[in-house]
From TrEMBL:
Protein name: FAD-binding domain-containing protein
Taxonomic superkingdom: Bacteria
Gene3D superfamilies the record matches: FAD/NAD(P)-binding domain (3.50.50.60)
InterPro entries: FAD/NAD-bd_sf, Geranylgeranyl_reductase
PANTHER family the record matches: CONDITIONED MEDIUM FACTOR RECEPTOR 1, GERANYLGERANYL DIPHOSPHATE REDUCTASE
Region forming the signal peptide: none
Protein species of origin: Desulfurobacterium indicum
Length: 229
């Protein structure tokens, strides 16, 4: 689920992303000149009634109280293992095809891209509905491997979220991989390869920072740590 509230304000601060309180998502504030876009998305939330309240609770936390310009949200059919190309005579694009990056939640780019491809194919094979359907399916299928990597990395990231942040704090290389993912500068399998390579370089530091070396002690005290998430 994703929800957003635009709030009138003379924005000065930079963008903010807050991962607390979400099982598999985050809250954001984007300053846009004379208003803020605030909102949140959670991959694990399939439906919820109090989306506005959740958003407002976070806005209050960050002191955002101006006049509400617009608000609204929707369920986004993020890729979950399959893409839906449609059938002969009907091509599904964007959200309808589940063309939403399962790591970043980016859907606008893929909606435009798939719509462009669908229209090109319709023009190219105007009298041949079967060829259009076959070629369009091939096009969508070419994204499956990358989206599967994205799904895998998202699950990995949120499963070990606290440890991931700690590792990012101590490793410039891993922080740079994360930035590259968010700005779509890197393919997901390449990101994973870089992540592994960088992680190998800091085993002892990682062990210390994540608390692996305190595991036994924690078990005895039943205390919580990043590894319990
Ligand atoms: C709050 C929120 C924030 C988001 N932020 C981002 C973001 O920052 N970046 C990003 O990449 N993606 C974002 N997304 C996701 C993105 O908006 C969607 O993935 C994208 O808009 C999908 O485009 P689409 O053309 O497939 O579908 P839509 O944009 O949903 O367009 C479908 C259109 O079809 C119309 N329609 C529906 N039924 C009928 C009907 N029976 N007859 C005629 N028309 C009909 C609808 O009114 C709508 O205009 C966000 C989504 C939400 C809800």
């Amino acid at each position: 689920m994703t929800y957003e509230i635009d709030v009138e304000s003379d924005t000065k601060e930079s963008a903010l992303v807050d991962f607390s309180d979400f099982k598999s998502g985050y809250y954001w504030i984007f300053p846009k000149g004379d208003f803020y876009t605030t909102g949140f998305g959670d991959f694990s939330l399939l439906k919820a009634r109090n989306l506005e309240d959740i958003n407002l609770k976070f806005n209050k936390k960050y002191g955002i109280r101006g006049k509400i310009i617009s608000k609204g949200g929707a369920f986004i059919p993020v890729f979950d293992g399959r893409l839906y190309s449609g059938e002969e005579g009907i091509l599904l694009t964007g959200d309808a095809a589940s063309m939403v990056d399962p790591f970043t939640g980016e859907g606008i780019y893929f909606a435009a891209l798939s719509a462009k491809k669908a229209s090109q194919l319709i023009l190219e094979y105007f009298d041949d509905k079967v060829a259009v359907a076959v070629e369009y399916k091939k096009f969508l299928d070419s994204f499956i491997a990358e989206f599967k990597w994205a799904l895998f990395l998202r699950r990995l990231f949120f499963r070990f979220r606290t440890s991931m942040f700690k590792v990012m704090e101590i490793s410039d290389e891993i922080r740079s991989v994360a930035t590259d993912i968010i700005s779509s500068n890197i393919r997901y399998n390449e990101a994973f390869r870089k992540f592994l390579k960088s992680s190998i370089k800091l085993p002892m530091r990682f062990v210390h920072v994540t608390g692996f070396d305190k595991k036994r002690k924690r078990k005895e005290s039943k205390g919580l740590s990043s590894l319990d998430i």
